[in-house]
Every structure is written in C-alpha cells, then in structure tokens.
C-alpha cells in the first residue's frame, strides 16, 4: 500500500481544510461535535484503505492467475512438442533403415583388411565401412603397448577435437570390448561431439561400437550415423577373425 500513501496524505489535507472553517465560527463548538468530526475522518480513511486494498488484491490476484494459466499452457505446449519430436526421431530410426549391403561380400572385404599391423587395420576397416555405408562420423581405436585403446583414425570429425582413450573400467565401450560384440546405441549421451556440415552442427541419432579383440590385441571402430544400419549383424559375423 506504500504506492497509495499519497492518497491518505491528500485525505488528511482535505480534513485539515475542513477543520479550518470552524476557526471562523465565533460560537464555541461542543466537544461531542469535534469528536464526531475526528471519528468521521478515521472512518473515511478506513473506507479508502479498505477499497484500495480490495482493488489491489483483486487486480494482483487476477494477474497472477492469468500468468499461472499462461505458464501452465506454455509448459504443456513445450512438453507436447518435445514428445512429438521424440516420436519423430523414433519413427525415423525405425523407418529409415539403410539398405542392407551384401553381407557375404562386405564381410569378405572386411576380413581382407585385417592384418598384424593394427593401426593399418583400423584405417583400412574404417575406410571400407565409410565406402559401403552412409556414415556421419567415425573414430578408429587400437590397443597400444600400455593396453590403452587410443584413437588413430578419424572420419568426419574436426581434427581440433581431442578424442580421449577408451576407459576400460566402465562404460559401453568397455562392455563391447569385454564381450567382443558389436552394439547399437540410440540414447546418445548429451556430451557427445557434434559434427559440422554445410548446414551447421548436428548430433547423430545412432552410435555403433564395433570391437575386434584377440587377447591383449584389439581394435574398436566407433560409427555415428543419422539412421540405423545393419552393422551389428554384419560385424558380429566376423567370427573368423576374432
């Protein structure tokens, strides 16, 4: 009510002016009359306060209610759009599946690229995959003398981006290496690298982790794509070289 203080001050000023007129009256005024005037003044001030408080409360409550309704409406719309977007992404993953390649020929090509030179094997396998499939980005790792899987080949990834070695203690990469089985990931981590293109930066919708482990020796190919591929089925048929 501080902002309405001037209204009460103005009311008090008018009351003083009303009292001044009695100074020009020669007759002595009864005490009860003066008391009645003062009481009337306080009653009027109380009525002003009550009316202003009622109006302010009503207006403030109305605004808050309107804001709450608008906020709830916008949140509901955002939730609806998010659900719709997730549905579109899932539909895309389920419907836009890359044409399956000739598995036998592709597996034969992959096997021909495997050699004792693990760095060359990583490079050749990654190149073969990118020639046969529509790949957004790829990272090739090999197990070095320190038993660390370090990146040695990149495709579609900015060279300025630093790729860390694979953590073997925990994570999907570690599980794939342990099982020596390819896996498909559709729940992409939020901190996964964005890949630049002419249309801007974008995140993949599907990740593939393709391990090829033989004892302490091993390689891993990580593939990022905008749609599902049949890489898991194909890669897990490489029993002859695992």
SSE order and pairing:
Elements: H1 5-20, H2 31-95, H3 103-112, H4 118-132, E1 137-143, E2 149-155, H5 172-179, E3 183-185, E4 195-197, E5 200-202, E6 206-214, E7 217-225, H6 231-235
Antiparallel strand pairs: 1-2, 1-7, 3-6, 4-5, 6-7
Helix pairs in contact: 1-2
Describe this protein's structure.
- This protein is of the alpha+beta class.
- The chain folds into two domains: 2-95; 103-241, GAF domain (Beta-Lactamase, 2-Layer Sandwich), CATH 3.30.450.40.
- Helices cover 49% and strands 17% of the residues.
- The chain contains six helices and seven strands.
- The chain has helices at 5-20, 31-95, 103-112, 118-132, 172-179, 231-235; strands at 137-143, 149-155, 183-185, 195-197, 200-202, 206-214, 217-225.
- Strands 2-1-7-6-3 form a five-stranded antiparallel sheet. Strands 4-5 form a two-stranded antiparallel sheet.
- A hairpin with a 2-residue loop joins strand 6 (206-214) and strand 7.
- The radius of gyration is 39 Å and the shape is rod-shaped.
- The termini are far apart.
- The model has no long low-confidence stretch (mean pLDDT 76).
For the record, the CATH architecture of the largest domain stands as 2-Layer Sandwich
CATH names the topology of the largest domain as Beta-Lactamase
The portion of residues forming beta strands comes to: 15-25%
Radius of gyration: 39 Å
Average pLDDT, all residues: 76
Largest sheet: 5 strands, antiparallel
Poorly predicted ranges: none
Tell me the overall shape. Answer: rod-shaped
Number of domains: 2
What structural class do the secondary elements suggest? alpha+beta
Order of helices and strands: HHHHEEHEEEEEH
């Amino acid at each position: 009510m501080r902002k309405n203080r001037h209204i009460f001050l103005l009311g008090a000023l008018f009351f003083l002016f009303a009292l001044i007129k009695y100074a020009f009256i020669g007759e002595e005024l009864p005490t009860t009359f003066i008391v009645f005037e003062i009481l009337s003044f306080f009653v009027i001030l109380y009525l002003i306060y009550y009316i202003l408080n009622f109006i302010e409360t009503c207006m403030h409550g109305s605004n808050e209610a309107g804001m709450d309704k608008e906020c709830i409406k916008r949140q509901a719309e955002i939730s609806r759009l998010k659900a719709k977007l997730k549905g579109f992404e899932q539909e895309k993953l389920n419907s836009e599946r890359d044409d399956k390649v000739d598995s036998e020929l592709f597996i034969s090509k992959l096997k021909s690229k495997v050699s004792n030179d693990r760095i060359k094997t990583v490079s050749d396998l990654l190149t073969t995959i990118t020639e046969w499939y529509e790949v957004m980005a790829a990272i090739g790792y090999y197990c070095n003398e320190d038993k660390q899987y370090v990146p040695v080949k990149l495709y579609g990834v900015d060279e300025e981006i630093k790729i860390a070695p694979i953590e073997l203690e925990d994570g999907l990469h570690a599980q794939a290496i342990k099982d020596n089985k390819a896996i498909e990931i559709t729940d992409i981590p939020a901190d996964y690298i964005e890949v630049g293109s002419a249309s801007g930066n974008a995140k993949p919708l599907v990740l593939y982790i393709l391990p090829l482990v033989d004892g302490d020796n091993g390689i891993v190919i990580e593939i990022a794509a905008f749609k599902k591929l049949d890489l898991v089925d194909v890669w897990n048929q490489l029993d002859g070289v695992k």
